[in-house]
């Protein structure tokens, strides 16, 4: 379906579409994880990042950057997950200000249980509605935006800049 929009409205419509599609797909995937009796989606994201990390885990600050949540929210999530035995917090031996989130064996098991539900949800609630060409365009375009923010290209102009 092609939307008849003026060129200056395309950016706003693209942004709105990203938000609507993301919200709908995430809610559907979250519901499937819940029905399957696995960890919630936010916990899955934390487990995914910890699973992908090199030993011993991730510093809390780095984990917050990777899961796109506030540091406060990540800290609360990790505390909840630690109470369930899925992760543990460890203070860095060299710098007591640094706290690491470390995946436990129970966390690995919970992650493995959730993976097929999560990947199936991505296919069912997102990818199945797009052609391969559309998937490529979306991936390329959104990665450009993400890269621009990682490199600082989208930092707001400073008022004292010449």
Helices, by number, come to: 6
Q: Structural class from helices and strands?
A: mainly alpha
Overall mean pLDDT: 89
**Helical percentage:** 55-70%
| Overall 3D form | globular
Largest sheet: 3 strands, antiparallel
> Which sequence of strands runs across the widest sheet?
1-3-2
Give the low-pLDDT segments: none
Strand content: 5-15%
Could you tell me the number of beta strands?
Answer: 3
Radius of gyration: 19 Å
Distance between the termini: 45 Å
Along the chain, the helix and strand elements come as: HHEHHEEHH
Oligomeric form: single chain
Give short descriptive properties of this protein.
WH-like_DNA-bd_sf; 6 helices; DNA-binding transcription factor activity; 3-stranded antiparallel β-sheet; WH_DNA-bd_sf; about 160 residues; mainly alpha
What's the short version?
The protein has about 160 residues and is mostly helical. Helix content is about 65%, strand content about 5%. The chain is built from six helices and three strands.
Structure, explained:
It holds the Pfam family MarR_2. By secondary structure, this protein is mostly helical. It is built from six helices and three strands, in the order ααβααββαα. It has helices spanning 7-35, 41-52, 60-67, 71-83, 105-125, 132-150, and strands at 58-59, 87-91, 99-103. Strand 2 and strand 3 form a beta hairpin. Helix 2 (41-52) crosses helix 5.
């Amino acid at each position: 379906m092609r939307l008849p929009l003026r060129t200056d409205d395309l950016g706003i419509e693209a942004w709105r579409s990203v938000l609507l599609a993301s919200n709908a797909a995430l809610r559907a995937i979250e519901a499937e994880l819940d029905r399957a009796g696995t960890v919630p989606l936010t916990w899955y994201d934390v487990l995914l990042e910890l699973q992908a990390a090199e030993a011993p885990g991730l510093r809390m600050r780095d984990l917050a950057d990777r899961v796109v949540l506030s540091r406060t929210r990540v800290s609360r999530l990790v505390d909840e997950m630690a109470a369930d035995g899925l992760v543990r917090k460890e203070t860095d031996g060299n710098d007591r200000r640094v706290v690491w989130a470390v995946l436990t064996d129970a966390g690995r098991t919970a992650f493995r249980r959730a993976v097929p539900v999560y990947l199936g949800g991505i296919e069912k609630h997102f990818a199945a509605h797009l052609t391969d060409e559309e998937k490529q365009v979306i991936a390329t375009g959104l990665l450009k935006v993400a890269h621009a923010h990682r490199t600082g290209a989208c930092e707001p102009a400073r008022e004292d800049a010449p």
